[in-house]
Amino acid sequence: MDSIPRTEHRETKSVQCRWGVVGTHRIAQNFVRALMRVPGAKLAGICSRSREKGQAFLRSVDGAECVVYSTLDELCSSSGIDAVYIASPTKLHKDHCIAALEGGKAVLCEKPLAASGAEAREIAAAAQAANRFCMEAMWMRFSPLIQEAKRMVEAGSLGEVHFLRAEAGYAKQGEMLDRERKPGEGRGALLAFGVYAISLAHYILGKPDAISGAVLRISDDAGEDAFSASLRYGQNCLAVVSAHQTATLSNEATIVGEDGFIVVDSPFIGPSQMRVFSPHWRSPARGRVHRMVRQALARLMPARFPPANALCAEADAGLRGEALELMECVSDGRTQSDVMPLEASIEILDMIDAIRGSARV
Ligand SMILES: NC(=O)c1ccc[n+]([C@@H]2O[C@H](COP(=O)([O-])OP(=O)(O)OC[C@H]3O[C@@H](n4cnc5c(N)ncnc54)[C@H](OP(=O)(O)O)[C@@H]3O)[C@@H](O)[C@H]2O)c1
């Protein structure tokens, strides 16, 4: 098995950044643990509405030490914070991002960037007015495996791409499910999981020409239990993206071209393995002879089933990668990421809005 240590290579660039974290739930814990492994990154503050919760959060992340702020305003006006990672509920992202940008901070905001395309546009306008960096924390895009999949597609290693499938779903029950279904909370399968599947299709294939979707909900205003949508790209390519919150899906993604295909193993949102079935793929670790043998084998066998190469990476590499992306962009004086630009977050939320409106109960 080959490994792709690209994120680790990038971590050698030395940039200093003092981070403030908003929210104390599980994803914020995972992010802070990853942040501690990014050279030059320092946890300088967290914001929690409860001092006890803030202290408990610090204990949960291996006893990290920093200032605990009890309001967002205090954190955003502190001169000891350069960048703010926002992990509050999605319905608060717009207000929290704008407050941090107006406080002069660079912003990394959890996925989805906002609850709708209109809200995301307000965030982008605030980032432009403040001339500050802002990016959706779509850690999947910073996985070395997902970046390698994109590189292979762009290099033509699969031939012309005809199909992409991505499905994300984890069954929720009881209070957790009730919370996701609560009207007006900006939750549900589309925003929680669907955003990953749609973001992957958008990253690999871009903005589709047409979308048609189907949605399951228990009532007209509840968060979606499930959705599936077909995205059409020109006359030769379709993507099928789905998410579920009452059933656990395969959580795999597949990208199919005329000469081969890629399977990103579960969970594709933070993968540790990807299999490549392509005679053209250039394995950096194997060299020319290996490639020639593979190409010869592919000629003898049906081209649709070339031998597989498995690639691996650390599952949390994307969390480190997104933090590093902010730090490097800010250090280079850039206000947007090429990997996850605000325009892409807006287009993805527009797609979510379109799917949400495409079917009723
Ligand atoms: N990237 C991933 O894999 C991943 C995974 C899960 C979630 N997420 C995203 O992360 C975000 C948070 O999701 P979640 O389910 O963890 O949300 P959550 O539990 O509802 O809230 C997260 C944190 O926000 C703070 N908070 C809650 N209500 C607030 C309020 N009214 N005002 C200010 N702060 C408030 C709380 O911290 P205090 O009580 O300490 O103030 C809480 O711990 C969502 O956008 C979600 O989509 C991402």
Outline the biggest β-sheet. 9 strands, mixed
The secondary-structure element order is: EHEHEHEHEHEHEHEHHEEEEEEHEHH
Helix count, DSSP H or I runs of 4 or more residues: 12
**For this entry, what is the oligomeric state of its chains?**
single chain
Q: What top-tier CATH class of the largest domain fits best?
A: Alpha Beta
Instruction: Give the mean pLDDT.
Output: 91
Number of strands: 15
Strand order of the largest sheet: 1-15-14-13-12-8-11-10-9
Q: What ligand molecules are bound, each kind once?
A: NADP nicotinamide-adenine-dinucleotide phosphate
**Radius of gyration over alpha carbons?**
21 Å
Q: Examine the coordinates and then state which fold CATH places here, giving the name of the CATH topology of the largest domain.
A: Dihydrodipicolinate Reductase, domain 2
Strand content: 15-25%
Corresponding CATH superfamily of the largest domain: Dihydrodipicolinate Reductase, domain 2
Low-confidence stretches: 5-9
**Alpha-carbon distance between the two ends:** 46 Å
State the CATH architecture of the largest domain: 2-Layer Sandwich
Q: How many structural domains does the protein architecture include?
A: 2
Name the helicity range. 25-40%
Computed structural class? alpha/beta
Morphology call: globular
Please describe what this structure looks like.
With 361 residues, the protein is α/β, with parallel strands linked by helices. The chain has twelve helices and 15 strands. The chain has helices at residues 6-10, 26-35, 51-60, 72-77, 93-102, 117-130, 144-155, 174-181, 189-205, 288-300, 317-331, 342-358; strands at residues 2-3, 17-22, 41-47, 67-69, 83-86, 106-110, 134-137, 161-169, 210-216, 226-233, 237-244, 253-257, 261-264, 273-277, 308-312. Strands 1-15-14-13-12-8-11-10-9 form a nine-stranded mixed β-sheet, covered by helices on one side. Strands 4-3-2-5-6-7 form a six-stranded parallel β-sheet, sandwiched between helices. Mean pLDDT is 91; it is low at 5-9. Bound molecules: NADP nicotinamide-adenine-dinucleotide phosphate. Residues 23-25, 27, 48-50, 53, 87-90, 92, 110-111, 139, 192 line the site of NADP nicotinamide-adenine-dinucleotide phosphate. NADP nicotinamide-adenine-dinucleotide phosphate binds next to loops.
